[in-house]
Design goal:
Elements (H helix, E strand, L loop, with lengths): L1 E6 L6 H12 L6 E6 L6 E5 L5 E6 L1 H7 L9 E6 L11 E7 L2 E7 L5 E4 L2 E6 H18 L5 H7 L2
Parallel strand pairs: 1-2, 1-5, 5-7
Antiparallel strand pairs: 3-4, 6-7, 8-9
Helix pairs in contact: 1-3
């Protein structure tokens, strides 16, 4: 599976992060990953709950279609990575929003070396590795047209 990481941040640890991701998926899907440094200012759209209060934000799909998708032609998945300060989805750190023009789109932000905890359990690997393997699982279910069981297995730790 061809994966493009569009990075709004410059990290020296990309090779380690990508290798961890490849190793984790090995035997399930082979990842062919490319990282491209970019400098874009994402636009976010807020989503309101039934009470009218905005609960979370996601990158605007029209903005993604215009700015991200043209860069991702020929890839199966594009991951737009930004810093915590750019990420307006907080406390959600990443999201797999499905396919746009046939390309699975994931976006999120975090710090380079933070740890990852879920329900009080610290997971091995840094935060980017953990949130992106989670979001890639969502994308893989969507690509296959299968029921998405990512959260079921994630919460069980399997």
């Amino acid at each position: 599976m061809k994966v493009l990481i569009l990075s709004n941040i410059r990290w020296n640890s990309w090779n380690t992060k990508i290798q961890s991701l490849k190793d984790w998926f090995k035997g399930t899907v082979e990842l062919d990953v490319t990282v491209k440094d970019i400098s874009l200012s994402p636009i976010f759209t807020g989503f309101k709950g039934n009470d009218g209060i905005t609960r979370y934000y996601s990158m605007n799909k029209a903005w993604i279609t215009q700015n991200i998708i043209p860069l991702a032609k020929g890839y199966d998945v594009v991951i737009f990575t930004m810093s915590n300060s750019e990420n307006k989805m907080f406390p959600i750190q990443a999201s797999s929003i499905g396919a746009i023009n046939g390309i699975q789109v994931i976006h999120g932000g975090c710090n380079e070396f933070d740890n990852y905890n879920f329900n009080g359990v610290r997971y091995d690997g840094d935060i980017w590795f953990n949130i992106m393997r989670h979001e890639l699982c969502h994308a893989l279910y969507d690509i296959q047209g299968k029921q998405d069981n990512t959260h079921k297995y994630w919460e069980a730790g399997t």
